[in-house]
Amino acid sequence: MYDALVVEDLTKVFAKPAVDHLNLTVRAGELYALLGPNGAGKTTTLRMVAGLLKPTSGSIRVFGVDALADPSAAKQMIAWAPDEPMLYDKLTPMEYLEFVSGLWGVDPNDGRARAESLLRLLGLWDQRDQRCEAFSRGMKQKAALAGALIHEPRMLILDEPLTGLDAAVSRQVKDLLQERVKGGATVILTTHILEVAERMADRIGIIQAGRLLAEGTLTELRERAGEREGTLEDVFLELTGEGEAAPT
Amino acid sequence: MIGRPGSTIWLLGHEIRLSWRGLIGGRRGRVRLIVLGVLGVAFAIAGVPIALALRGFSMPIDTLSVLAADVGCVVIFTLMVSQTLAGAADALYARGDLDLLFSSPLAPRKTLTVRFAALAGSAFTAFALLASPLMIPLAVFGHWRWLALYPVLGALALAASGTGLALAVGLFALIGPRRTRAVAQILAAIIGAAFFLTSQIRTIFGERAESLWTQVADAAGDPRLRLPPLAAWPLRAVTGDPLPLAAMLIVGVSLFVGVTAWLSRRFAADAASAQGADTGRRRVARGVAGAFTGGVFASTLIKEFRLLARDIALLAQVLLRVLYLLPVTFLLLRNATGHQSWALPGGAAAITFMAGQVASSLTWITVSAEEAPELLQCAPAASATVRNAKLLAGLTPLALLLAIPLGVIVVAAPLTGIAATAGATAAAISAGLINAWYPTPGKRSDFLRRRRSGSLLMGLALFFVSLLIAATTALVAVGLPWALIPAVLAGAALLALRRSPARIAEALAANT
């Protein structure tokens, strides 16, 4: 059985390296949290995995498929949900899901059934025929999440999925992600809310300056940081050295 | 910054600084400034012989001059109102920093007075820049009093800004927040094109094709025409007569100050209630919900049709370009049915050229103005399939618009009709392809700004390819074999411009 994601020696250079010879493996069926300070290269890494950025060098394999050689096959298995929802203001959630289904070639009957199920699950069914332009940020985020899930991706990549959401919506999204993981999907997410990673993630990767600093379960990371009783925040600050700059 | 913080002058300085940085900001801004400077100097040099020729000329205050000045003032005022009305409607909804300003302790009236003064300023600047290459040499070579044109333009701009504000508030009261933006933008487009269409009214319906100025000259030649003395004031003001000049300034400033004082509180309240009101909170989409198609091409096409049909403001902006097609189409129709074959080739060429220009606008909206580009990039769909669906969606409205008039021409004058249909189709497809090969990603709201920010190469390419196809159309309509030359040149230009999907993707990635 293939790992969900294998990234080897991945490098992306803009003016300077944003991702620097990164090696990363995400197992199938796990929820993996990718953490790092601002500008560490998290989003750049995930955008390369999603096929939105071409790496300078390195390789990306998604369930055994070379994502650089056969991007279409890799994309078929992936859903990408950035922090800013990829929505059309003038479309309704139902129309948006129709469009996304078309892009991923979902069978029309399956698409219709899944759209109804997702919109009901996320509490958007009553708004299914209203244009997204009137939606709150949370509603837009939920509509975008429905779009990410409509083609039942094997791997879901989310960049800051909980930013700006209220407690209720945030809980809904977290429950949905955990449910997908239980159903066998792989979820990779970035977040600055370390409690979320601490409570939800099977494994955590910490990157800094485009390189993987540490990786493992929370217990493994605690051992690595020498913080046996510490929270993930303590571990993160210790490993990244960010805590040294903070006032005591 | 000049003035005491929070004062009107200080706020005005802030607006001017933002406008100036918007104009010259970044590399493009500097290039724009250099191009404007070079063009200005070139035109000013070209204006020198005219100024020398007019050195000893004294402007006669006769019927023709008076009428010409009056019509000129009305045309400029109308165009300015079109600009300020659109600006006022935008300020009601997409308010940018108005939230910040309204949340400050500054009086809303002051904030809005300054905002509308800035609108007047931008209307004034556009016309002043157009006039300067001639006005400066004229002033240097003896006609310094004619510099009074600038205060006259300022008075017209202030009056237009007040009128735009009054119209926006009136529309808001009359039809409510949800429709005001779209109606205001359509109205602004129609007002902007009104004089063009009025001047072409005889072209459309009459028997003679005359310009507005020919009609003015005809009217001036009518011995029964008696103009009231006040009619001469705009001309006298422009030529520096102090009393009419002062009167025009007083009228312009009074109208602006009066309207802003009277309506700014109301406008601020309207702006507050407009927030979110035009976003269709209870707007239920028409069409078949749940019409899942299962294909990339069909679902992209349906999505683009929906977005086009629902963006009334954008359609209003395209409408302005389509309006210019009307007189040409009517001229062609009239000549085709009247068998005045001499005018047919020119009309066919014009309709072909304009079809290319309108297609360029529509396909930019569908191809480049993608709201969720990453969604398409991360989908497993072939980019060529998505692009073709977007091109078809962009070209379909133009095809629907032209189908009936072109059909009538084909029946009435088959050769011209077929040439015009083929030419318009070729020009439209070429414009769409160039847009697809050289995408300039942007927001739909940037539709008007894109011409300033788009690549010069693409703009020139669109212009010359449309021109070559239009020339081919005219020559085919005449039945001349020379048609082959522009056709081959247009084909060669398209082949040279063609980009592979991989290169398009590379160019897009480089812009990311």
Order of helices and strands of chain A: EEEHEEHEHHHEHEHEEHH
> What is the tally of beta strands of chain A?
10
State the largest interface. Answer: A-B, 46 and 40 residues
* Rg from alpha-carbon coordinates of chain A: 18 Å
Major pleated sheet of chain A = 6 strands, mixed
The count of β-strands of chain B is 0
Q: Mean of residue pLDDT of chain A?
A: 90
Explain what you see.
The complex is a heterodimer of chains A (248) and B (512). Chain A is α/β, with parallel strands linked by helices. Chain A has helices at 42-49, 71-77, 93-103, 108-121, 137-149, 167-182, 194-200, 218-225, 232-240; strands at residues 5-13, 17-26, 31-35, 57-62, 65-66, 78-81, 155-159, 186-190, 203-208, 211-216. Chain A is globular. The termini of chain A are far apart. Chain B is mostly helical. Chain B contains 22 helices and no strands. Chain B has helices at 8-24, 26-53, 63-93, 98-103, 108-140, 149-175, 177-199, 201-205, 212-220, 233-238, 242-274, 296-310, 312-323, 325-338, 344-368, 373-377, 383-412, 414-437, 450-453, 456-478, 484-497, 501-511. The two termini of chain B are 35 Å apart. The model of chain B is unreliable at 278-282 (pLDDT under 50). The A-B interface holds A 50-54, 71-73, 75-76, 78-80, 82, 86-92, 94-95, 98-109, 111-112, 115-116, 128-131, 133-134, 147 and B 276, 279-285, 287, 289-296, 298-300, 302-303, 306-307, 310-311, 371-372, 374-382, 386, 509, 512.
Provide a quick synopsis of the model:
The complex is a heterodimer of chains A (248) and B (512). Helix content of chain A is 38%, strand content 23%.
Helix-strand blueprint:
The complex is a heterodimer of chains A (248) and B (512).
Chain A: E1 5-13, E2 17-26, E3 31-35, H1 42-49, E4 57-62, E5 65-66, H2 71-77, E6 78-81, H3 93-103, H4 108-121, H5 137-149, E7 155-159, H6 167-182, E8 186-190, H7 194-200, E9 203-208, E10 211-216, H8 218-225, H9 232-240
Parallel strand pairs in A: 3-8, 3-9, 6-7, 7-8
Antiparallel strand pairs in A: 1-2, 1-4, 4-5, 9-10
Helix pairs in contact in A: 3-4, 3-5, 8-9
Chain B: H1 8-24, H2 26-53, H3 63-93, H4 98-103, H5 108-140, H6 149-175, H7 177-199, H8 201-205, H9 212-220, H10 233-238, H11 242-274, H12 296-310, H13 312-323, H14 325-338, H15 344-368, H16 373-377, H17 383-412, H18 414-437, H19 450-453, H20 456-478, H21 484-497, H22 501-511
Helix pairs in contact in B: 1-2, 1-5, 2-5, 3-5, 3-6, 3-7, 3-9, 5-6, 5-11, 6-7, 6-11, 7-13, 12-17, 14-15, 14-17, 15-17, 15-18, 15-20, 17-18, 18-20, 20-21
